[in-house]
Amino acid sequence: MDTSEILKKVRKIEIKTRGLSQNIFAGQYHSAFKGKGMEFAEVREYQFGDDVRDIDWNVTARFHRPYVKIFEEERELTVMLLIDVSGSLDFGTTRQTKRDMVTEIAATIAFSAIQNNDKIGVIFFSDRIEKYIPPKKGRRHILYIIRELLDFQPESHKTDVGMATAFLTRMMKRRCTSFVISDFYDNKDFLQEMEIANRKHDIVAIQVYDQRAKQLPNIGLMKVRDAESGHEMYIDTADKRLRRAHTQYWLSREQYLKETFAKSKVDWTSVATNEDFAKALMLLFRQRA
User: Fold this and answer.
1) What single-letter DSSP state applies at residue 249?
2) Whole-model pTM above 0.85?
3) In terms of Cα–Cα distance, which of 147, 151, 143 is closest to 114?
4) For residue 33, with 0-12 CB atoms within 10 Å meaning exposed, 13-18 middle and 19 or more buried, which class applies?
5) Which residues contact 190 (CB under 8 A, 6 or more apart)?
6) What is the DSSP letter of 55?
7) Dihedral of CA 168/172/173/175: which sign?
8) Could you give the CA distance from residue 90 to residue 235 in angstroms, rounded to a whole number?
9) Residue 132: phi, psi to the nearest 5?
């Protein structure tokens, strides 16, 4: 993709996703992702009913009567996007690939963040950390992120969600809100890493999938290729047992994800490439508000 084509795509995505974040998500985002930290604001004289743990003993000693510290919510957040860039994201059988939708979701969240004066950073991951973009503010920073989303070429095609969340835990010293955006095609168990990350940070998972991963069409002999391993084979989609096994595999994976996110207390949503991701995000934000 040449530079002019990338810039056109960046502009197109900015127009769509910035409009979504301004018209739909602004209020929802603010209430769903409040600042979790508390910062010192002022002191005042102790009043009946105040928590004695908030007494400022230095000021109390100076004035010979009790004073308490007043704290206010620290509104500014740091938002991290953990973006899956593995090979399976290039798959798509409807109007767009999973990678296209991941890019639009990430851009929408990014524009929602800067409207609330939050910093935003990105971790691109496969089965390794492909790229880390430190959190910053501003439109120019977001356009750089979108450009990277459109044109980034990973070194690996495999997936390791646990490794990515463990990196987040090590890298981010202060609490942040983090969105893990992936199809979660990962054969490894990532429950422990997700639990640890969500104790330190506020983790939200967004699963993007293609409808054909859920249900195979009956179109006869079909050549398929595993985007992560490169393995190719022919399958007969007219075989009812094959289609049933395919659906059963999907259901078992979804059950695993459901249990993993429930045990790790991670909020999550799932959206297909032929669906409106705005509705899924709105529902997720409302549930958290």
Assistant:
1) H
2) no
3) 143
4) buried
5) 160, 161, 162, 165, 260
6) B
7) negative
8) 20
9) -120, 125
**Residue 228: its pLDDT value, please?**
62
**The residue type at 52:** V
C-beta of residue 4 within 8 angstroms of C-beta of residue 173: no
183, 208 Cβ separation under 8 angstroms: yes
Looking at residue 214, its amino acid is K
Phi, psi angle pair for 96, to nearest 5°: -155, 160
Question: How many residues in total does the chain contain?
Answer: 289
Token pair 């993709």: residue:
1
Cβ within 8 Å of residue 173, ≥6 positions away = none
Contacting residues for 126 by C-beta, under 8 A, at least 6 apart: 84, 85, 86, 87, 154, 155, 156, 157, 158, 159, 160
Encoding tokens for residue 74? Answer: 């620290």
User: 41: how many CB neighbours lie within 10 A of its CB?
Assistant: 11
- CA gap 156, 174 in Å, rounded: 29
Task: Give pLDDT tens digits along the chain (289 positions).
Answer: 667 777 788 888 888 788 778 766 666 777 777 655 555 567 888 888 788 888 999 989 999 999 888 765 555 689 999 999 998 888 666 678 899 999 999 999 999 888 888 899 999 999 999 999 999 999 899 999 999 999 899 999 999 999 999 999 999 988 899 999 999 988 899 999 999 999 999 999 999 998 877 777 767 776 666 666 666 777 666 778 878 887 888 899 999 999 999 999 999 999 999 898 988 998 888 888 6
Q: How many CB atoms lie within 10 A of CB 173?
A: 8
